[in-house]
Amino acid sequence: MTVSWMPDWQTADGVPFTLASGVHEWRGVRPTDWAAVGDGLRAAHEELRRLPVRRIVEAIDAVVDLWAKRDFTARRAAVRDAALVTGMSEETIDRALDAELGNLRAESLLAALTRELGDPEVLDGFRGGTTAVGPRTVLAVFSGNVPGLPARSLVRALLVKASVIAKIPAKEPHFTAAFLRTLHDVEPRLADAVVATYWDRDDDEVLDAALGQADAVIAYGGDEACAAIRARVRSHQLYEEHGHKLSFGIVSAEYAALHGPAEVARQIAADCSEFDQHACLSPQVYLVQEEHARAIAEHLATAMRREARDSPPGAIDAQDATVLQHRRLVAEWRAATSDASEVWAPDGLEWTVVLDDALMPLSGAGNRVARIVAVPDVDAAVDAMRPFAKHLQNVGLGAVGEQFRRTARELAVLGASRVSAPGSMTKPSMVWRHDGQPRIAGLVRWCDVELHPELDRP
């Protein structure tokens, strides 16, 4: 089935493209007349403006209700295809979708709208003398291999009644079109406001053509890819960027004593196993107060083995396997020369636990490597993160009482945009201001009526 999505009004022929993973291929079509696409999206935007925001929420909730069922035909097909292209197991992908789709229920969407806008219905017209107006068209450039990732930005754009041009990620191209096909069954006016397609990263001609139809741009990717898009954004366009990010965990002595090493290990294993540790929200290192570090690491080996049994890790390509084997060798060399270091790992590459007393340069990422670094105290853990402040995103903070409140504030000042409990790092809600900015309010402009006698009339 095609990985692109074209609305009913898009009748012009396009250019076919093929995305491949090994022997598997998926096909789609890319528009050639972007001016016509822009005209169609402008007309679709006018239809969106007539939809009450609560109707949009209801439609998205109805779609998610279908997709929440693991045996839903469209979901099963998308999961199978995603497993082929990402290498993740179907169970890992299902868990990722469970978490992501759970954030798109009506209650969550209304909570996010209320937090950022005060009153969701300001998107429908003036409320108390103020109204919010979304962009006509958003260009969303997605990347990465995290299943369901495009859903958040796609839904946010539709909530503010913007039409969307979505560049699907080559590393997980199936979800967007499949989700939009279901959305079309539920509420065609929403699905007809989206064009989802693909072009090569270095195809500046198509990027510029798509940019020419947009009032706002959302970019996902590494620092280099985001910089290339940023350089082409026009001065009148809103711009939102999700570049390279890193996440860490912290466990204080008080938190470890309160919950016990086995439970803390279970929490850390969950954080390091979801998405096979490929999400930006996944921790690269857990910094644990030294008197509990070894006990937690010992329990962590059992917990990681249990996670691998319940949610099998995906296939690792040859390059990633080489990187992972090298990381193990470095850790084992450290363990051979230091009483403070140790490595636990099966014969295969399903998981790895490393205990160390130094935060080595971060090399490689993902593939279920749970690194425990012993630190003297929580302040030392925060100091260890300072060199990575520019890219800091998410911290799983295991602390209690006043220490929790003080450390959370320090992490916020350092650069973290999210602090969660250990075990919840990969499950952000829609209420989270993604990467530290209001992602719904950031898409709208406001108009206020003031100093006008009509405001006082009933």
Automatic annotation (TrEMBL):
Gene Ontology process terms (BP): bioluminescence
Alphabetized UniProt keyword annotations: NADP, Oxidoreductase
Known catalytic reactions: a long-chain fatty aldehyde + NADP(+) + CoA = a long-chain fatty acyl-CoA + NADPH + H(+)
Matching Pfam families: LuxC
InterPro entries, per the entry: Ald_DH/histidinol_DH, CoA_reduct_LuxC
Gene Ontology MF terms: acyl-CoA dehydrogenase activity; long-chain-fatty-acyl-CoA reductase activity
Enzyme Commission code: 1.2.1.50
Family according to the record: Belongs to the LuxC family.
Protein name: Acyl-CoA reductase
Source species: Saccharothrix saharensis
Lineage: Bacteria, Bacillati, Actinomycetota, Actinomycetes, Pseudonocardiales
